[in-house]
Every structure is written in structure tokens, then in C-alpha cells.
Design brief:
Helix 4 packs parallel to helix 6, helix 7 runs parallel beside helix 13 and helix 8 packs antiparallel against helix 13. The protein folds into 2 domains: 235 residues, no CATH class; 223 residues, no CATH class. It starts with a helix and ends with a helix. The longest helix has 55 residues. The protein is mainly α and 577 residues long. It has 16 helices and 2 strands. Belongs to the otopetrin family. This is OTOP1 protein. GO terms for molecular function: proton channel activity. It comes from Ceyx cyanopectus.
Amino acid sequence: MEKGAGSPAVGGSYPQKNAEILSSQYGINLFLAGLLLTFAWAVHAVGISKSHLLSYLITLMLIQLLWMLWYLCRSCTQRRLIRDKDTHAGARWLKCGITLFAVITLILDSFKIGYYVDFSNCLSPTEGIFPVTHAVHTILQVYFLWCHAKDIIQSFKTLERFGVIHSVFTNLLLWTNGVLTESKHQLNEHKERLITLGFGNITIVLDDHAPQCNCTTTTLCSIFSQGIYYLYPFNIEYHILASTMLYVLWKNIGRKVEHHQQYKTPFKFHGITVGMIFGLIVLTSTIAIVVVYLIQIGRSKIKSELALTMFYLHAIFVLALMCTAGIVALLIYRLEDRSLDNSKNPARKLDAELLVGTAAGSWLLSWGSILAIICAQAHPKYTWYNLPYSALVIIEKYIQNLFIIESIHREQDKVNDSIKTLRIVTISRGSTLSLSSSYKEIYNGRAAGDGGEVPCLFKGSICGRENDAAGGASKEETSQENSSVMNSASDFSFYSRNSVTNNKRRILKNIAAFLFLCNLSLWIPPAFGCRPEYDNGLEEIVFGFEPWIIVVNLAMPFSIFYRMHSAASLFEVNCKT
């Protein structure tokens, strides 16, 4: 009987698991086909042109648009139904971030449309259709994620799995296309910078797939081409964010949610003054370094070397501070005895996986730089600063990942009413009286009644009781005094423990605030074009110019996303602590 009763549940899980496996394999094959098509275009494979690649991407976007419209229409018809929501998915910072990047992506699409109009005589029609389709796709996708990122789909689950995974890998292919296009745009500019540093022996035939005709309006063409170059990083980040949010939606399909009370954790500036001050100092100095770097790099050999040296010294100092702060936080965690929350949570699991996965991009670049320093025959003076910088990048992310992952898995402290506001219960002649007083006032004896009675608070002691029996007055007074001494010792121990705990929490909040601002600071340089991995020169000598540029352009988006994702995770840690 038990086997028969359990068999339907077990059998019912097979279709759902099969749908998950089939949809994931569909998405992987979709991505691999697009990846090979992108690679074939990049290497000028016979019979493959850019129009073929864009046609493939347009088809994928149109299919996703149809699915999103169907989902939105179905949701409107069922809006009265109560649906389960994943409160951890689709955080507000994530929605705001993807909206910002989407707006910039729309500007990029408008630049591409203008670029196509100016070169329409020699460009394929697909290059004009692609930005229009992409703009519509961006607008509808952002709206979809704002409204339905938290959904837990319980109907049409097989169809929805294929629709969501199609959307995930469509965004990944659009990200890949953006990365490759940006890398081709950067070849000429970075070669010129390296020549100013004295690396004139780098020779390569550049090919950026430029149109084979003249522009109708030279000024506008220059603006559009340069604008496209500067806006691509934001487009790349947009598609990474969209992929992560859609992946969480895919993992939540058919999930059974346990309804727990959610505690709001608002951000407060109280108690994090030290961390904020040091973090703002780092942020301000980083902005100044980036401005000077972008002005000086490429102007002359001396100015370029000074810019690189300045960047490395500043980054080494900041990374060393971050390592120290992370180690202190981990030591505090080792001194605490708090259980971890191991409940099933796809959003939290993805956060941890993204921290480690995107950190691998920086680790790849750092190990490449270390290998180049070891293998290079000539070492300009400024290149030696790259060695401690690369080592600290590896160590810092390792420590910070441990701190963030442990923090988001630690159980959140609930509001302790016995610490903030205590209820004094006095029992007098069978009546109960409830008073409110702060703990310090009670402990210092300032909560005494007007009649000279000092209410007792802990361990169920009864205060203010009148003793009508004259013969037992002395015994009861002696017993009450002994109880008062014991309670005072217990209260003092309780107060001391909470004082130590509060001090630890204050230190952790300051560390989280400091690391939050430091990650924002380290996000700024690569996001705005300050990338010494391009300008150092040694890596290009050892690995080759174009291979290293492609590696950097593949790894750099992960590195940029890591800093932004870490900042958001640290913001959440600060609220929880």
C-alpha cells in the first residue's frame, strides 16, 4: 500500500525531470550552433557572412518575442489567480541595473541604425533589421523581467521550460556577438598604444570588417562608429544580467515553495561610518586615477609608463586593504557559533555560482599576466608592478568569495525584543501590570516605582509583592536579596554577551560597507576603458597580439560583472548583518 501510494508522486516527477533535461540540451545545441556560426564569420570561413549570423540571431529573438507575448497574454487572463513567488529572485537592484544597461543598449541600437543608413549602399539589409529587432526585444524583455522574474510557473511547465531556456541562450549568443564585435573594434587602438610604449615589433594584419563604400555623412559616421565602440560594454553587461534572471526563472519552474515569513532588511547608515569613510576615500581616489590614466595613456612612452605605474600602485594598495578586511571578517565568523541556512534557494545558489564563475575571468587574466612576466625576455620597470597586482587579484577574490557566500548562507538574526525593548511584568495581588523600559534603565535601577519598589525582570522573579505575614518578613527579604544578586550577575553576563555580539556585528557591517564601495571603485576602471591588461604589452609579446586581445575581451565582461555582482551581494550582506 505504501509503495502504491507513493508511486504517483514518483511517476509524476519523471515528466518534469525529462522536460528539464530536454530543454537544457535544446538550449546548449542552440548556443553551440550560434557559437560556431559566430566563429566562422570571425575567421572568414567560406560561404559564411555577417548576414548569415545576424539572420540566425534575428530568428532567435523573434521566437523569444513570440513566447514572451504568449506568456504575457496568458498572465493577463489569469491575473486574478494567486501565484507563488520566489521572493529571493529578481531583486530590485538587479532590475534597476538591467534597466540602466537596457537604456544604454537602446542608444547603441539607434547608433547602429544610423550607421546602417549612412552605409546603406554597401551593407546587407540584415544589418538594418538586426538593431530594430534587438531594440524591440530589449524593451519587451525588460518589461517581462520586471513583471515576472519572481514567478514560479506551475502550468504548461514543459512548454515554458523550452521558452525560458531559449531566452537564456539567446541572450548568451547576443553577449558572445557583442564581445567579438567589441574585440575587433579595439585592435587598432590598442596597437597604437603599445607602439608608444616601444613594442613596435608587434605585427598583425587587422580586419574589422569595415564597409567597402564611402559614408554619406562623414561627421555622423564618425560619431556613430565611436559611440558604438564605447557603448558595447553596457550591452554586454545587459545580456549577462538578462541571462542570469531568466536562468533563475527556469530553475523555479515547477518548484514547491515553503511559505516563510520574510523579514525586511532595510539599509541603514547607522554604525557604518568608518567603513563608509574609508570606502569613499577609495572611490574618490579611483575616479581620479582613472581620469589621469585615460588622459596620459598613449600620449608618449614616459606618460604611458607613469600612468601604468600609478594604476598598479593604487590597485595594489586597495586590494591589500580589501584582503585584510576580508580576513578580519572571516575570523569573526570563526569566533561565532551560528547555524547556516541550507534550505533550497535557486537565487542564492546562483549568486554563489556567479561569484565563483565570474571570478574565473579575472583569475584567467591574472595567471596570464604572471606567466607573461615569468616568460618574457625583457622586463620594463613598470611591468614588475603587475606581478603583485595579479597575485592580489587572485587572493582578494578568493577571500571575498568566502566572506560573501558564508554571509548569504548564515541565518538572519530575528528582532530580539528582550534586547531592544523589554516587558516588565509585575504581579501584585493577583493582577498583572505591563511596563516598557529600556534594558539600561532597568539595569541601572532607574525603573523603580514611585513607592520605592524596584521591579524584577528576569527568570520569572516576582517583585513588589506585599508580605502580610510579619513573622516571615525577614526570611523572604533574605531570599529576595539572594535572588536579586543572582539575577544581577545573570543580567550582567547577558548584557556583556550582547555587547560583544553587537560590537562584532558593527565591525562586520563596516567591513561590508567598505568592501561594497571598494568593489564599486574597482568596477569603474574596466567599465570606462582603463584596462592595463591591454596596455601593459608583455602579454601581447608572449601570447600574440590578437589571441591575447580575444582572451581579454572574453574574460573582461566576467570581471566587470563580478565587481557589480559582488557590490550588490555585499549590500545585501550589510542589510542582513
